[in-house]
Specification:
Order of helices and strands: HHHHHHHHHHHHHH
Strand content: under 5%
Structural class: mainly alpha
Radius of gyration: 21 Å
Number of domains: 2
Helix content: over 70%
Largest sheet: none
Distance between the termini: 50 Å
Shape: globular
Number of strands: 0
């Protein structure tokens, strides 16, 4: 067996989808990143900061999910792969530390760490799969796209104000368009979904673990904010309980059927790479973003539960569940062909609550949005009956 072969995951092995301990260790950096992002928005709930945070969420997800795709092919317990992941962890730690001031003094640190992670991992993959010409050409195309975006990341890091934001939006747009365009490169052609050999259980577990990271941040923010209140009133305690219930409901909506369904349909699909690209690379972004925004809402509501519900408060209290349900509905629609009725009703009710929000306090609005999540979770659970192997119709 060549050295190259030992670096690649054996997809025919019984444990081919197993997530390695080093992958879980790698994820710890992103626990820090999610915490930094949520605190940044909670500390300054303005439209400008919201746009900046939206870009940061997309960037953090993008660098993480590209790494999850890479480890889908790699045998993570080998020395070279571990070394590569440790290098990514260090760069990721720098990136995470720079998040609060990414649009201030640490823009170049954030951009430099991001580019180093994207290019460094891809160069390693080109070396690791050098014995497989199809995979090597696939990663060469990816390298070209990431290298095309890199100057805009760096230029944005050196620019200031709206120029930084615009350049980073352009850079991220280039990267996020690349999978949809099959990484087409003149002279190298374009990738095919059949090139993206994917282990369904591995990708599902990796993305599920990131969802757990985001949910964990929601619980941590709720607990930390409540513990900092010297003399909590009934409204604070109610907000504390609502934050917990909302997290449980989101866990239930995602893991009760969606995660298992994703594994099964990828394994049964004739185009597993196509399904994984849509379901995990793209559609998990609004799911994760929705949980992070909901974590911000928990802190905001705990800070002023019976105050006035302004536009910013309304957007995070309702926007988090809306993003989360929309992402889940689209993810579940891949095998079903339609958005589950329970999710569509939930989204409709959240839309109605936008109008209601002007008359209620933040804690009441949080109670209503949490009730929507619980309704969707119970509805979907009941629609399945006792059968967890068939597709949900509700």
């Amino acid at each position: 067996m060549s050295r190259t072969d030992t670096l690649l995951r054996d997809h025919d092995a019984d444990d081919s989808g197993r997530v390695g301990m080093v992958e879980l260790f790698f994820d710890l950096v992103f626990v820090f990143a999610v915490t930094q992002i949520s605190h940044s928005l909670a500390a300054n709930l303005t439209p400008i900061v919201a746009l900046q945070v939206a870009l940061l969420i997309c960037a953090v997800w993008w660098v993480w999910v590209f790494t999850a795709w890479a480890t889908n092919w790699l045998q993570c317990e080998t020395g070279p792969v571990r070394a590569m992941l440790f290098g990514l962890m260090f760069a990721g730690l720098l990136l995470s530390a720079a998040i609060p001031t990414a649009f201030a003094g640490n823009g170049l640190v954030f951009a430099g760490a991001y580019v180093a992670m994207q290019l460094g991992r891809t160069l390693f993959m080109i070396w690791a799969v050098r014995g497989d010409d199809r995979l090597r050409r696939n990663f060469l195309r990816i390298l070209v796209w990431l290298a095309a975006a890199a100057p805009f990341w760096i230029a944005g890091g050196m620019a200031e104000g709206w120029w930084r934001f615009a350049l980073w939006v352009l850079a991220l747009g280039i990267e996020m368009a690349s999978p949809a365009l099959y990484f087409a490169v003149p002279g190298l052609g374009r990738s095919r979904s059949s090139d993206w050999t994917v282990e369904g259980s591995h990708m599902a577990e990796r993305c599920g673990l990131f969802v757990i990271i985001a949910l964990g941040e929601s619980l941590l923010m709720t607990g930390a904010t409540y513990s900092a209140i010297a003399q909590p009133q009934w409204a604070h305690t109610a907000a504390f309980g609502l934050g917990f219930v909302a997290s449980v409901a989101m866990w239930w909506i995602y893991f009760d059927i969606g995660a298992q369904q994703g594994v099964r349909h990828i394994q049964e699909s004739h185009e597993p790479g196509e399904m994984a690209r849509a379901g995990y690379t793209y559609l998990h972004l609004p799911i994760v973003a929705g949980i992070i925004v909901s974590a911000v809402a928990d802190e905001v509501v705990l800070g002023q539960p019976d105050g006035v519900t302004g536009v910013g408060e309304m957007l995070v209290i309702l926007g988090g569940p809306l993003l989360f349900l929309a992402g889940n509905a689209a993810f579940k629609a891949i095998p079903l062909g339609w958005w589950p009725l329970s999710h569509r009703v939930g989204l409709g009710v959240l839309g109605v609550l936008v109008v209601v929000s002007v008359w209620v306090s933040p804690v009441v609005l949080a109670a209503l949005s949490t009730a929507v999540l619980v309704l969707v979770a119970v509805w979907e659970n009941r629609s399945l009956g006792g059968n967890r192997t068939e597709a949900v119709n509700g």
